[in-house]
Write the structure tokens for this entry.
Amino acid sequence: MREGRKNGTASRTRPAERENGRSSPPIWAARALRRAHPSEWGPIAAPAVAGKGRTGPRVALYSHDTMGLGHMRRNMLIARALAESDLGANVLLIAGAAEAKLFRMPRRVDCLTLPALRKETDGQYHSRSLGLSLQQVVAVRASTICAALEAYAPDVLIVDNVPRGALGELDDALRRLSERGTTRCVLGLRDVLDETPVVRREWRERAYEEAVREFYDAVWVYGDPAVFDPVREYGWSPRTARKVRYVGYLDRRSDGLADTGPDAIRHLVPSAGRFALCMAGGGQDGVPLMRAVLWADLPPHLGCVVVTGPFMTTAMRRALAARAARDERFAVVDFHSEPRQLLARADRVIAMGGYNTLSEILSYEKPALIVPRVQPRQEQWIRARCVQALGLVDILHPRDLRPAALSAWLAQDPLEVRKARNVIDFGGLSRLPQFLRGTLGLPCSAPRGCAGEPLTPVPTRGGPDREPGAAAERAPR
């Protein structure tokens, strides 16, 4: 690990460090030099839009992918939206785990995978596969990222969630891009990061606001301030807040990938026909939920499909499958690259509360019980409480997770589901190409939103402070 970082945190030095005895200019300084001395530096050419005889802008999407599938799945969806838009962007995904290759790549999208890190439930990082120290693996990842970005020379780099990358692995790459001065950098954030005190401390200790100020042109939040407003909750400085643009949630139905008809998943559906769906993202910490589901009592004429995820151990998948084999109404699926095909057919859903999973559930307007992760971060619990306050889902704290609690929820007659689109902005995927145009300084192809106009923040409801009961909390409908 580089000097100045210890135990995964950064020193209070500025992200632009000294190299060869001189300071690397921050991005604003490089741009100022370009404006003052255009003959020496040359102009920054606007990237071409795809068309006859032309290629679209080059975009790189980075995700650290140290726990679960959420970051890479979100970046995959963003990549598809940009590549298939009228911009015809070429997108290089830089993913922190080989599981990114499990997903079908759209045209003009390719993927570079890094040696994997694993984040444990206590928040500590380890090498997932290579017999190297953490410092050695981070050094390999950082060097690979630098080399890839140097060769690819993207017009825009979109960094997912962590301004300096996992354990600061983006520091060198961001500094080199700022020296070059030809790449716009965007920080993409999910709606909720963690508890407010934790986020404020981490952003202070790891110099994240300094990184945003020095290296990033914009901050895109894939959410709606009507649900959660990170600018207000996390107390970002006015300078950072001015860069924030609310994209809106990503409507998982709009890309049409799940519209394959019932035959594509017929072999996965239990004999009961109607079924509840249980999902836990990558499955790394989903065993308690799946055990409880498989030991729950199902109502008559209702089956259950459990999707384990690629990060669950083989031994545990076999144990769950053995349990399911005792009752033909249960089915265990090791992995499904497009779980929305199952979600579209499901009668109701029991799931953890990751950003992608909850966005999909809300998109498809399914009755849902959310059992969120609470370690190492409270992000899922906070998100679930905010969405429950809007009357869209039911929630159950994991300490109250019992087969009996799930049986009771499944036995209830499902109430009419409130339409999430009447409450939450789901225009993210359609808005992203226009945000990219605005970042690149290209003409707008839509009547509004090209420059990334933020959604209007509205007062958020009370925070997730009420203690959970032993039973699932029923959402107001």
Notes: The chain has a mean pLDDT of 81. The two ends are 51 Å apart (CA to CA). The domain at 262-418 is CATH 3.40.50.2000 (Rossmann fold). The first strand starts at residue 5 and ends at 6.
